[in-house]
Amino acid sequence: MVKFRFFMLWVWALVVSSCGRVPEAEVFQTAEQSPSPGWKSELAEYLSLYGHRNWILVVDKAFPFQASPGITYLNSGASLPDALSHVLKSIGNSKHVKPIVYQDAEISLVDDGLAPGADDFKQQIRALLKHQPVHSLPHEAVFEKMDKAAELFGVLVIKTETTIPYSSVFIELDCAYWDAEREQRLRTKGL
What we know:
Elements: H1 2-18, H2 39-49, E1 55-59, E2 71-75, H3 80-93, E3 97-104, H4 118-128, E4 134-137, H5 139-150, E5 155-159, E6 169-175, H6 180-188
Parallel strand pairs: 1-5, 2-5, 3-4
Antiparallel strand pairs: 1-6, 3-6
Helix pairs in contact: 2-3, 3-4
């Protein structure tokens, strides 16, 4: 009888100690937990599939993880300027898409007095975007555009280690081999 009780106690202890434990292979890892070493190759894969109306966001560390199924996250582990430089080069090397760049209007008001390093950061971003027209919109307006797009189109969010507020760069992809003028001429032909 004592052996039976000991056995049952042992079984109970085993069950209790294993309850709540998740096997290592099943632990959910978010993009927030560790940098993705292959984020550049993953970007290349997404870019080959993406077309006009898709978005690529290069964002600061505090950018929220959204539950929308149309949004994919990659954690670069890089600074925002480094990640943005790679994204812009990748888009520039593609034949099918070109960038339409948006920034939060609030970044123009952020300086070293509010966020140390902001002035140098803004100078780096200006240098990277010098050949791109940049649309400046209030933070909420950029989110509204992106959220609406995510209802129908894929959005790729590349998280960075940058901790400067309103520093994210939002890139809406557009067709590189077609433009609004030719679209208008096409529409005047009929349909």
